[in-house]
Amino acid sequence: MSSKASRNDGKFAGTYLTSRIDTNDDGILASWSTGEVTGTLGKRSFQSVVEVVPTGATAACPGGVFIIDAATGKGFGRTTHTFPNNDQIYSRILTRHQCGLGGGKYEIDDTSETLGGTGKFEGASGTGEIHSISITQAGDANAVPPQSFGSFTGYFEATITLP
Hints:
This protein has no helices and 11 strands. By secondary structure, it is mainly β. A hairpin with a 7-residue loop joins strand 5 and strand 6 (about 65-70).
């Protein structure tokens, strides 16, 4: 029996909060997020831990540019999707370009890969492209390290291959 790639596209929305996890010991904490997905594989919830690396502001991104580049070990991103029947899909962010637009608004473009899962997704693989917008709704820049809470919404286009 051969495996075949199928579409794994959808929309998502959720919230994030600064965590206490520092995946690379640089003093910048990862964000923990949770949300809901509606897509070709059905409805599901997800949770993620993401730590970006700041690279400075640009004219196009006056609020700063933040990246993940898994190939060079810069930044970190992992997600678990959980379906109503408790099957799960695990994925990681390969690359992220996060542009600070000012006023706590960010535009984010990711590439990702599926790392397997449980139930019918055990041994799954695939790749995807993700686009989202996030807005910081509350923050404490005086906290050590700084803390924030916000929301996001977006969409993804991906493939998934089941063994």
